[in-house]
């Protein structure tokens, strides 16, 4: 259901903001709402009952909007935010789980195909994007915001790439942006799924600005007055409400030396051994807790995710997305392991938090299993197509 069939038709000569999908309108049920201004558009993820989790129709709608806005010379920049208490909890993995249970593999493929294409469009967008990361920002939610121009974090922001906890791997471009974090922080976040605050995001570069959530209406109001496509003008506007913050003293960022020492190793087994050695040597509770967390996580997912981050260091965004597409289909098809379905069942469906991982331990995960995740798809299974030549020509 289109929200904005003709954007220009919504605006009068004053350029007054027009909001679609509010109140008792049927548009209230739409998964992406739109607010308009004379020189900008705001896309609002509107699935608050599932923390704005992204499904195929959401990604398709966003793709259509962004392409229309990119082609419109009257639109200078785009704002992206979530409704309710979250920005976006990521991909709708429960919906994928249900599709798999129904044998609808095509629906799963379409979801990944559409979502990854949208991530690529965000990462190569010709106009600035301002993502307001107020609340939960995880997985695919990070994928559609971090590749953009500006990311505003708040005291309510909770970032994570928790995919290994459900027998999966960080995707939607995660192997690109996590691999570019300082030191081996990306490996740590990918393997443990640990959360970061808004203050931590700004400190390590995942966010570009930090502001208290109470100031977000003022930020949006000021952005709405701008008639520009100049990133420097937008940045100055954001800085008017920016704040200097520091991570909590308990933050992992204050343990970066130990983190790098442990997570720089080539294998997951060596990482676990290093954590245990440090724990015994220094009586470090953080090392103990981190080691225990890794040992409770899907062993196959850990090995696959570590390799993904390491490969991502030497790849472009489009290369990462193509590889992640192969990995994602391998995970969902369950020919190597059924850990994805088991992880979603345990954590999000039955909620017993007692997954039965297969293989059950690191030593049971063979190199062939990991290699298969990264192998090219069969001749009958097309690789992910991204408009790289078209978009690179523009940039």
From TrEMBL:
Q: Which residues form the Enoyl-CoA hydratase/isomerase domain?
A: 41-374
EC numbers on record: 3.1.2.4
Q: Does the keyword section mention Hydrolase?
A: yes
Q: Known catalysed reaction(s)?
A: 3-hydroxy-2-methylpropanoyl-CoA + H2O = 3-hydroxy-2-methylpropanoate + CoA + H(+)
Which keywords describe this protein according to UniProt?
A: Hydrolase
Enzyme class, first EC level, given as a word = hydrolase
- In its UniProt record, which GO terms are filed under biological process? L-valine catabolic process
Pathway in which this enzyme or protein is active: Amino-acid degradation; L-valine degradation
Q: Which GO terms describe its molecular function?
A: 3-hydroxyisobutyryl-CoA hydrolase activity
* Function as written in the Swiss-Prot or TrEMBL entry: Hydrolyzes 3-hydroxyisobutyryl-CoA (HIBYL-CoA), a saline catabolite. Has high activity toward isobutyryl-CoA. Could be an isobutyryl-CoA dehydrogenase that functions in valine catabolism.
User: Which family does the record assign?
Assistant: Belongs to the enoyl-CoA hydratase/isomerase family.
Its name, as the record gives it, is 3-hydroxyisobutyryl-CoA hydrolase
């Amino acid at each position: 259901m289109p929200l904005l069939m003709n954007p220009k038709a919504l605006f009068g000569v004053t350029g007054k903001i027009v909001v679609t999908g509010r109140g008792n309108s049927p548009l209230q049920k739409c998964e992406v709402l739109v607010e308009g201004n004379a020189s900008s558009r705001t896309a609002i993820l509107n699935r608050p009952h599932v923390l704005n989790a992204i499904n195929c129709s959401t990604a398709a709608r966003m793709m259509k909007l962004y392409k229309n806005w990119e082609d419109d010379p009257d639109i200078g920049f785009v704002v992206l935010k979530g409704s309710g208490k979250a920005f976006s909890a990521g991909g709708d993995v429960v919906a994928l789980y249900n599709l798999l249970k129904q044998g609808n593999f095509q629906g799963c493929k379409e979801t990944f195909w559409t979502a990854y294409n949208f991530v690529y469009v965000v990462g190569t967008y010709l106009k600035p994007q301002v993502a307001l990361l107020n609340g939960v920002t995880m997985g695919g939610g990070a994928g559609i915001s971090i590749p953009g121009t500006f990311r505003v974090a708040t005291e309510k922001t909770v970032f994570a790439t928790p995919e290994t906890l459900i027998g999966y791997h960080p995707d939607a471009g995660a192997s690109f942006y996590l691999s570019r974090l300082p030191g081996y922080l990306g490996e740590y976040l990918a393997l443990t799924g640990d959360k970061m605050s808004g203050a931590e995001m700004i400190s390590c570069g995942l966010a570009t600005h930090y502001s208290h959530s109470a100031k977000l209406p003022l930020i949006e109001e000021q952005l709405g007055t701008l008639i520009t496509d100049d990133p420097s003008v937008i940045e100055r506007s954001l800085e008017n409400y920016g704040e200097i913050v520091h991570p909590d003293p308990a933050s992992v960022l204050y343990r970066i030396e130990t983190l790098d020492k442990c997570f720089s190793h080539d294998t997951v087994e060596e990482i676990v051994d290093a954590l245990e050695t440090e724990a015994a040597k220094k009586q470090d509770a953080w090392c103990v807790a981190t080691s225990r967390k890794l040992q409770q996580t899907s062993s196959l997912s850990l090995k696959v995710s570590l390799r993904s981050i390491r490969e991502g260091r030497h790849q472009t965004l489009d290369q990462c997305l193509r590889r992640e597409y192969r990995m994602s289909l391998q995970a969902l098809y369950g020919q190597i392991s059924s850990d994805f379905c088991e992880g979603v069942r345990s954590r999000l469906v039955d909620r017993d938090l007692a997954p039965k991982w297969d293989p059950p331990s690191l030593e049971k995960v063979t190199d062939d299993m990991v290699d298969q995740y990264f192998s090219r798809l069969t001749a009958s299974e097309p690789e992910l197509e991204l408009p790289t030549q078209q978009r690179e020509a523009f940039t």
